[in-house]
Task: inverse folding
């Protein structure tokens, strides 16, 4: 009983910590609109969109943790869903610039350069934000639903599922690199000017995008926390730990895995859409298999099976990447490899499990376990 109470208190503490951290992340940049540029608390203009991208990565880590940390399904292809949401947003941003490009054409500049005569059918409707928003929400989820249905129904799991998702990501990357695809080829979509009437280069717009991203991340975190705390969450953990036993008990695990897989892709699509106006570009490099592997590294470093851990891992790894790629770009991959190997060997539960791996924490846990 005491152990259960301590576990509940620990969960509440982590939830309070996550809410407080997200609140701070939202409030501090908001002060940029109130404080003068000379103030010590005023963040540099380049730092706000950088932190906004980190929030998008944290949302991806949250989605990755739901499918891998709690359901035990390791995906190495979540970059697909991130890119689908990103390209949908990029297509909208390109369409609202019709007539304002270098060639003053109703077609995007890259289509004029490639001598396209008319807009492809799949670009129709993206001049309306509501249409683009529907595609952002539905396309990644529907793609995941179809792929997951056939994969999970065929009982593909473990390393085989990981290899298939990685191969799918690589195939789509090659497809998106082709100019005939109509998505900008190697250069992708870029040179965006405005969103919903707001000029993207303005510092106030960047701050607004940051605030929206922080709010979406907070809502997503609470939604994930609600799912994990429910009976569905317990079933997902059971699928991760003993899927065969659940099958013998009569549970149809297909529907549970399909739900969390689709929900995870849904979150990744939103993250990709929020990322593009803050990064200013979307190209096929987002589909590179290394990006999807890096998403798994965020969760492993932060702590698989811990929502807060995924957020911490995303911020830590991407913060280190931003610093290393400026200071010592040639050392970044070595640092990433050392971080992942070190976490696997010495912190198997990641940063989120560090408090339980300390000597005094283990002694306390042992005492609680022997109590009646």
Result:
């Amino acid at each position: 009983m005491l152990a259960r109470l301590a576990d509940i208190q620990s969960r509440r503490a982590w939830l309070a910590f996550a809410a407080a951290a997200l609140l701070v992340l939202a409030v501090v940049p908001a002060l940029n609109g109130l404080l003068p540029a000379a103030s010590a608390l005023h963040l540099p203009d380049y730092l706000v969109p950088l932190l906004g991208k980190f929030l998008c990565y944290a949302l991806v880590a949250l989605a990755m943790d739901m499918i891998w940390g709690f359901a035990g399904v390791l995906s190495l292809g979540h970059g697909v869903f991130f890119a689908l949401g990103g390209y949908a947003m990029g297509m909208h941003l390109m369409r609202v610039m019709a007539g304002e490009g270098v060639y003053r054409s109703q077609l995007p500049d890259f289509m004029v350069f490639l001598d396209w005569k008319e807009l492809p059918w799949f670009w129709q409707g993206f001049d309306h934000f509501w249409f683009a928003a529907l595609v952002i929400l539905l396309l990644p989820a529907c793609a995941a639903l179809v792929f997951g249905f056939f994969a999970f129904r065929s009982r593909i799991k473990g390393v085989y599922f990981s290899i298939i998702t990685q191969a799918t990501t690589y195939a789509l990357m090659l497809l998106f690199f082709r100019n005939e695809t109509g998505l900008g080829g190697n250069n992708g979509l870029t040179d965006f000017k405005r969103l919903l009437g707001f000029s993207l280069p303005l510092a106030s717009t960047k701050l607004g995008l940051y605030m929206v991203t922080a709010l979406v991340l907070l809502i997503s975190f609470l939604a994930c926390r609600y799912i994990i705390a429910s009976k569905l969450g317990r079933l997902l953990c059971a699928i991760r730990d003993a899927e065969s036993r659940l099958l013998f008990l009569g549970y149809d695990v297909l529907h549970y895995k399909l739900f969390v897989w689709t929900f995870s892709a849904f979150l990744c699509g939103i993250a990709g859409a929020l990322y593009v106006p803050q990064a200013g570009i979307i190209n096929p490099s987002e589909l590179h298999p290394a990006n999807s592997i890096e998403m798994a590294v965020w969760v492993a470093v932060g702590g698989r099976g811990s929502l807060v851990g995924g957020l911490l891992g995303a911020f830590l790894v991407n913060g280190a990447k931003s610093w290393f790629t400026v200071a010592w770009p040639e050392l970044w991959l070595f640092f990433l490899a050392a971080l992942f190997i070190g976490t696997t060997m010495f912190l198997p539960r990641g940063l989120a499990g560090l408090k339980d791996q300390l000597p005094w924490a283990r002694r306390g846990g042992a005492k609680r376990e022997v109590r009646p």
Q: What stands out?
A: Residues 2-370 form one domain. The two ends are 8 Å apart (CA to CA). Strands lie at 189-190, 194-195, 198-199, 281-282.
